Amino acid sequence: MVILGIPDHAFLPVKSMLKKLDLSKNYLTALPKALKDLDVLESLDVSDNSIGDKNFTEDVLRKIGATLTSLTFGSYDILNWPLTLKHLQMLQNLNLTRAAFQFMPQDAFHGFAGTLLTLSLSKTGLKSLPLAVARLNYLQSFNFDQNTGVGDYGMNVPLLQGIMNYLTNVSLKQDSLKTFPEALSVFHNLKSVSMDLNMLDFVSDHAAGSVKQIENLSMRNSNISRIPQALADITSLKSLDLTDNRIHSIDVQDVQILHSVKEIKLNNNPILYISNHAFDNNGNLERLELRNTSLKEVPCALKSAIENLTRVKHHFPLTVDLSNNDIRCTCELKWLAETLSSHQSNITWDIIGDCETIVMSINDYLNSDNLLGCPSSNICN
């Protein structure tokens, strides 16, 4: 049922009980006056309504501002930033899902700059990263996604060193970026960055230097044709997601530079070739995802990966996901069975995926009698 309007005192029966209210995807044109009766409201979602910026009524926001900690809103009827939000002085989470404005005042977060922990600004007409964000001293997570008018120039804003010391997670998805913004370099405690759905076909050493302190990096669907060598400068990197790119091959140096990485996701890439020694220096690897690639064989590179994990006394399980590939399970897989058998007391492992040549999972095939009569294979030597 779609709501067109709400009677002024509709919430009186639950005024002391209702803490979370979702009014999204309706035909409301203003904040309902009925909200003023709610004494304990903590979370409100009014996104996907036709509520313009002039209809974020001041007396309603002043009343719920004493308790509200989470607000989600958004409409292309919002032509300017609603300054009446200043009354939400307990706000911790703010999520703007869409808006038509191209500018935010520097005091946009006045009233809750000292309480806001998570901020999302998506699908706006903004042409640059708002300087107002730099005033959020305790912000921990910032999503600035699908602001397609921003681009590299719009991310080049003057931010001071030492600000926002609690910021650990940043998402800059689909912001028409071609490189990592230098502005990220001022956030010394940043741990996770998502640059999905941009055009990062080339990542320079200088660009990667702006995020050299992070642990998790996602560059999904970003037109990347090769694992960027500049990632070698990110010495603390633990997780790398390059899903949905244009990577055709993994050469000997492409992954060896990622010494500290525990998880590598290369799903949905047209990978045809992986060097036999691609994982020679990856002694921390715990999970490798190669779903839906163009591989026909289990990569020989796993042999050195398994042997390396044994040498460093790796105590975590190794998982290799080869789902949705046309993997041929034949006698040539004897090398993998022998490698795993010789190191079974040192590591636990799991290879996910099915054989193309027989109705059996790869794991089951390796443990079946099918390989017993096969000669030892030197294909991966």
Notable characteristics:
381 residues; alpha/beta; Leucine-rich repeat, LRR (right-handed beta-alpha superhelix); 14-stranded parallel sheet; two-stranded parallel sheet; 7 helices; 16 strands
Q: If helices are DSSP runs of H or I spanning 4 or more residues, what is the number of helices?
A: 7
Average residue pLDDT? 91
Q: Roughly how much helix do the residues carry, as a percent range?
A: 10-25%
Morphology: elongated
User: What's the total number of strands?
Assistant: 16
| Alpha-beta classification | alpha/beta
- The CATH architecture of the domain at 1-101 can be named as Alpha-Beta Horseshoe
Strand proportion = 5-15%
Q: What is the CA-based Rg, rounded?
A: 26 Å
String of helices and strands:
EEHEEEEHEEHEEEHEEEHEHEH
Described by strand count, sense and barrel closure, the largest sheet is:
14 strands, parallel
Low-confidence stretches: none
Order the strands across the largest sheet as they lie in space: 1-2-3-4-5-6-7-8-9-10-12-14-15-16
Q: Could you name the CATH topology of the domain at 1-101?
A: Leucine-rich repeat, LRR (right-handed beta-alpha superhelix)
Q: What is the C-level CATH assignment of the domain at 1-101?
A: Alpha Beta
What is the name of the CATH superfamily of the domain at 1-101? Ribonuclease Inhibitor
Distance between the termini: 65 Å
